[in-house]
Write a structure and sequence with these properties.
Low-confidence stretches of chain A: none
Structural class of chain A: mainly beta
Order of helices and strands of chain A: EEEEEEEEEEEE
Mean pLDDT of chain B: 93
Number of helices of chain A: 0
Radius of gyration of chain B: 13 Å
Oligomer: heterodimer
Number of strands of chain B: 11
Helix content of chain A: under 10%
Distance between the termini of chain B: 35 Å
Shape of chain A: globular
Shape of chain B: globular
Largest sheet of chain A: 6 strands, mixed
Helix content of chain B: under 10%
Number of helices of chain B: 0
Strand content of chain A: over 45%
Largest sheet of chain B: 7 strands, mixed
Structural class of chain B: mainly beta
Low-confidence stretches of chain B: none
Mean pLDDT of chain A: 92
């Protein structure tokens, strides 16, 4: 079945540092891929998505590129802010239901 | 602009008690889901529904039942609560049947079973 594996945290960075959170997937078809973000005490909300190979999703300075050859969808941001502190989930699916990674907690220090 | 609303937000139960979590969405979405979130486990799908009157099992359905009598509501029931069901429960909905549609989440319901 489909699966999503993402880098486990926690990740602690200083403000303005570069962020990468790795995500790889296995799927029988060609899944859409998503990054969701969960701020403390809230539900998950969509950060960005890509629906086919070589697509790049972007939002709020975050980017991720759908790499079919490496089955990856790594999340990157060039300069993180304290307000980016949250838990990030990679998700994907090719059969209607999304499979979520275990989440990566990011803490950004001033 | 409510989106997905879950009630209650917090609940404490004793082992063996029953309860129902209610999820309501006002976006006319066809698909609705119940997930549980546990530390180090991410989100795991309990049950889901592809339309009014339908339900299906997800990854971890044991100990839970669901009903979708109205399109806008998806109920999650625990008939006899166990400490292993202590978790944060999230409801979500989406419109499309394919794999491109965005999931919209509620704010979560924190359940503690003593």
């Amino acid at each position: 079945g489909d699966s999503v594996t993402q880098m486990e945290g926690p990740v602690t960075l200083s403000e303005e540092a570069f962020l990468t959170i790795n995500c790889t997937y296995t799927a029988t078809g060609y899944p859409s891929l998503f990054w969701y973000v969960q701020y403390p005490g809230e539900g998950l909300q969509l950060l960005l998505k890509a629906t086919k190979a070589d697509d790049k999703g972007s939002n709020k300075g975050f980017e991720a590129t759908y790499r079919k050859e490496t089955t990856s969808f790594h999340l990157e941001k060039g300069s993180v802010q304290v307000s980016d502190s949250a838990v990030y989930f990679c998700a994907g699916g090719s059969q209607g239901n999304l499979i979520f990674g275990k989440g990566t907690k990011l803490s950004v220090k001033p | 602009n409510a989106g997905v609303t879950q009630t209650p937000k917090f609940r404490v139960l004793k082992t063996g008690q029953s309860m129902t979590l209610l999820c309501a969405q006002d976006m006319n979405h066809e698909y609705m889901y119940w997930y549980r979130q546990d530390p180090g486990m991410g989100l795991r799908l309990i049950h889901y529904s592809v339309g009014e009157g339908t339900t299906a099992k997800g990854e971890v359905p044991d100990g839970y039942n669901v009903s979708r009598l109205k399109k806008q509501n998806f109920l999650l029931g625990l008939e006899s609560a166990a400490p292993s069901q202590t978790s944060v429960y999230f409801c979500a909905s989406r419109q499309t049947s394919g794999n491109t549609g965005e999931l919209f989440f509620g704010e979560g319901s924190r359940l503690t079973v003593l």
